[in-house]
Write a structure and sequence with these properties.
Elements lengths: L1 H5 L26 H10 L19 H14 L24 H9 L6 E2 L5 E2 L8 H17 L3
Helix pairs in contact: 3-4, 3-5
C-alpha cells in the first residue's frame, strides 16, 4: 500500500531480495506482492529481519508501520521535518526510546494521533499489531501530507 501511495513505479522486472517471499507467475496478473516488496526494499522502506528474511505473513507492529511511512516519505524526497522537541507526548514512547524520533516526526506531520488510555494519558502502543484501520489511516494521512508538502 505504501509503494502505491508513494506512486513508485513497479514492474515485473523488480526482483525481491527476500528468499521467503513467494514469487508470482500468473501472466494474467503479472504484478504480485514480491514486486511491491522489491520496490520497497530498493527504496529503503523495508529492510527485513536480521536473518535476511521478510516474514510476509507476520503481523506488523505499529512501530514498524510508522518506520515504513517515515522512510517512504523520505524515499520520495519529502521527508517529515525532524521533531526537535523533547516532549513526552505518548506515555509509552519516552524521548530516550529509539522509536521516539520517527514516532514524533510522524505525529508532528499528522500521520498518527495515538489513543487515550483509561488513565487519560495518550498512548502509541508501539508493539501492538497494526490493524487494517491503522494502515489505512496512516497511509491516507501520508498521501495527504505528500500532496500538501510542495512540489
Amino acid at each position: 500500500m505504501i509503494v502505491l501511495a508513494l506512486g513508485l513505479p513497479v514492474s515485473v522486472n523488480d526482483k525481491c531480495p527476500f528468499p521467503d517471499v513467494p514469487v508470482g507467475s500468473d501472466p494474467s496478473d503479472p504484478l504480485y506482492a514480491d514486486h511491491y516488496i522489491a520496490v520497497a526494499a530498493s527504496h529503503g522502506i523495508v529492510s527485513g529481519y536480521d536473518n535476511g528474511r521478510f516474514g510476509p505473513w507476520d503481523a506488523i507492529t505499529r512501530s514498524q508501520l510508522v518506520r515504513m511511512i517515515v522512510r517512504g516519505a523520505a524515499a520520495v524526497g519529502k521527508p517529515f521535518p525532524p521533531y526537535t522537541g523533547h516532549a513526552k507526548v505518548f506515555a509509552d514512547v519516552a524521548p530516550s526510546n529509539s522509536l521516539y524520533p520517527d514516532v514524533m516526526a510522524a505525529y508532528q506531520a499528522g500521520i498518527l494521533s495515538g489513543s487515550e488510555g483509561s488513565d487519560g494519558r495518550l498512548y502509541f502502543l508501539p508493539w501492538s499489531s497494526a490493524t487494517r484501520d491503522h494502515v489505512a489511516k496512516m497511509t491516507a494521512n501520508l498521501v495527504h501530507y505528500l500532496e500538501g508538502s510542495g512540489s
